[in-house]
């Protein structure tokens, strides 16, 4: 028998003292939460569908579903692991867990300064620490030195091989071919 008080004071008393109304149970919402047999979602009180199946051995199996869609998929014997919105699918395929996993730290490359084959590390450091005007002067000196060396090489080549001493000979003449016969007219 359900007792329904009429006055506000009586209603408050029933809320505060569940022993006045014996059929009313003092349960928290957490105890009343159930889990959908198909999707794995939480089912809150007064929500969802219940499906009772009686087996051949007179055993009753009770299934709770969050909505008609979950019940329909269950009765069609669809696999919840293949339905994308189910909790089981999301857990298997690692969906929605990005905020739980810490971002992997990328290793920063550390520069190591070391010698190159032709130069020691001290020589490299000395050149790097040179003033720009000293470096420019050294560059100009190296350029003028190489130009002088080229001029000297060209002069030596000219002296060893005078231009007018040898007549120019074609490759065929040098190989010993006879000249072509001159064309004669009748």
Automatic annotation (TrEMBL):
PROSITE patterns in the cross-refs: RIBOSOMAL_L24E
GO-annotated biological processes: cytoplasmic translation
Keyword tags: Ribonucleoprotein, Ribosomal protein
Organism from which the protein derives: Parasitella parasitica
UniProt GO molecular function: mRNA binding; structural constituent of ribosome
Keyword Ribosomal protein on entry: yes
Any one Pfam family match given in the protein's UniProt record, by short name: Ribosomal_L24e
Gene3D superfamilies recorded: 6.10.250.1270, Ribosomal protein L24e
Residues covered by region (Disordered): 127-186
Domain Large ribosomal subunit protein eL24-related N-terminal: from-to ranges: 34-100
An example Gene Ontology CC term for this record: cytosolic large ribosomal subunit
InterPro entries: L24e/L24_sf, Ribosomal_eL24, Ribosomal_eL24-rel_N, Ribosomal_eL24_CS
Protein name per the record: Large ribosomal subunit protein eL24-related N-terminal domain-containing protein
Family: Belongs to the eukaryotic ribosomal protein eL24 family.
SUPFAM superfamilies according to UniProt: Glucocorticoid receptor-like (DNA-binding domain)
Ribonucleoprotein in keyword set: yes
Compositionally skewed regions (Polar residues) per UniProt: 163-173
